[in-house]
Amino acid sequence: MSESVKNSPGRPRSVLSHQAILKAALDLLAEVGYERMSIEAIAARAGVGKPTIYRRYSSKEELVADAIESLREEISIPDTGSLWSDLDLIIESAARTTLTPLGRQIKALILSTASSSPQFAQVYWAKYLQPRRQAFRVVIERAKTRNEIQTDTDSDLIFDLMSGAMLYAQIFPPASEPWEAHIRRALKLFLKSNFPT
């Protein structure tokens, strides 16, 4: 990230102020919850004025989504030349970022906030989940081109099923196998009917 991010027109935005805003939002989210936190409280905690926040964010939902995402590492989309090798790397990357105390905290923040605020859920979906689905679609489209799976395979459904399995296994870890092996087995089951005959 550069020293400052310029907003046109207007003054450069301070990176330190931005980080303080994100931290304040996360602290208040943990302390009082989404419904009880306010832009005023975030501004006071961060030591900035409300206009400083509103120059960056049009709503509390957008700010909280960015604050949560600031804790996450982006999962890269591999291109190994094989569907299952690509999926294995995605699963391994997800395990590194998800199966940690911070990863569990982030997931809890997303779920609790999205459950209490449809507006937040909509913003988070549009800004963060949809781009991830679109990136994952590339993996499935490559597999179709290589004739590894049926051409009518629904990549969005596979992404949703994989995400659901990951979330469930994070909350209720499998007892008989490692998390990664469990997700891989679930994906094989999902994709079984999509392999060319």
Structural overview:
This protein has helices at about 15-30, 40-45, 50-55, 60-70, 85-100, 100-115, 120-145, 155-170, 180-190; strands at about 5, 10-15. A hairpin with a 5-residue loop joins strand 1 and strand 2. The model is unreliable at about 1-10 (pLDDT under 50). The protein is mainly α and about 200 residues long. Strands 1-2 form a two-stranded antiparallel ribbon.
Keywords, separated by commas or semicolons:
197 residues, mainly alpha, Arc Repressor Mutant, subunit A, Tetracycline Repressor, domain 2, two-stranded antiparallel ribbon, 66% helix, elongated, disordered N terminus
Topology, please?
Elements: E1 4-6, E2 12-14, H1 15-32, H2 39-46, H3 50-54, H4 60-69, H5 83-98, H6 101-116, H7 118-145, H8 155-171, H9 179-191
Antiparallel strand pairs: 1-2
Helix pairs in contact: 1-2, 1-4, 4-7, 5-9, 6-7, 7-8, 8-9
- Helix percent band: 55-70%
- Beta-strand level of the residues, as a percent range? under 5%
Order of helices and strands: EEHHHHHHHHH
User: pLDDT under 50 segments (min length 5)?
Assistant: 1-12
The secondary-structure class comes to: mainly alpha
Number of strand segments: 2
Main sheet specs: 2 strands, antiparallel
Radius of gyration: 20 Å
Examine the secondary-structure arrangement and name the CATH architecture of the largest domain: Orthogonal Bundle
